[in-house]
Amino acid sequence: MKISPTIKKQLKQCYAEQVRKAGGVIYVTVACEFSDRDMAEVRRILGVDELDKEQVHFRVDPSLLAGLIIQKGSDVVDLSVKGKLRRVKQTLYMYG
Amino acid sequence: MAELGIDQNYLIAQLVNFAIFFAIFKFFIAKPLMTYVRKQRTQDEQRERIARDLQKREEEWEMEYKERKHKAQQEVEAVLKQAKEDGEKVKNTIIEDAQKEGEVLVAKAKKEMERERIALHEEMRKHAADIAVVLVEQAFAQYLSADAKKEITKRMAQEATKRDTSILN
Question: What is the DSSP string of B30-82?
């Protein structure tokens, strides 16, 4: 199903508004320094390009190796290579 | 008599003399002697009887002694046999208990060894997993360029929006 760009834009505006109302700040941790263009692309991909820069913070943690960690409040989504390797290790522990 | 050369008076005197001698001998020597001999014989008989009694009693005692000895020997043998049997039973029981205890110890040791083997295996598996992950991490750290990292980051972000964006809402 394809969502029309208008509806998509409206949805983005809607939850950007919600984020603003909730005062939530999104922290995106990446493995290396990102240029403004790269950060803008990531914001776009994540669908938070409508938010202010203060509401989406980029941080660098080289130990992640690659990938990113998104954190908002107490919610964390780990999409880093380090996290994936950790999960692989857990699987190996459990099933060998 | 005279013609034969025998003096009659002398003969009579001899006879009287003999009679007197006989009487004296009989009353004063033979009688006490006979009494003494009879007494001695009676005593000898008594002694013999006593000796026979003693002999008989001794034989009886001997028999009784032998019988008692035999009986005692039998009792001793029975007691020894019983003791031997009891000892054998005790020995068997001890051996059986020791065997059981040994089997329990062996089973316990086997169980312990199996547990340790499993624990060691588990530990080795974890170490292997740790080493593998560390190697992969080091390889990534060494060979991933900044551009590759950015590319991976963007792909992960796309994947995140496909899977779960509830955190961003």
Answer: IHHHHHHHHHHHHHHHHHHHHHHHHHHHHHHHHHHHHHHHHHHHHHHHHHHHH
Rounded Cα distance, A45 and B131, in Å: 35
Q: Is B138 on the interface with A (CB under 8 A)?
A: no
**Looking at CA atoms only, how far is residue B146 from chain A in angstroms?**
7
Q: Is the Cβ of B168 closer than 8 Å to some Cβ of chain A?
A: yes
Question: Chain A contact for B126, CB < 8 A?
Answer: yes
Q: From CA B156, how far away is CA B10, in angstroms rounded?
A: 189
Q: Is residue A18 scored above 80 in pLDDT?
A: no
State CA B93 to chain mean position distance: 15
Task: Answer whether B140 sits within 8 Å of A47, measured CB to CB.
Answer: no
A46 interface with B at CB cutoff 8 Å: yes
pLDDT tens-place string over residues A50-68? 888 778 889 999 999 999 9
Smallest CA–CA distance, residue A92 to chain B, in Å, is 6
Out of A26-30, A71-75, B33-37, pick the least confident: A71-75
* Residue B62 to residue A79: CA distance in whole angstroms: 114
Strand order of the sheet with strand A67-72? A56-60, A26-30, A67-72, A75-80
CB contact under 8 A, A77 and B160: yes
Report ipTM (2 d.p.): 0.70
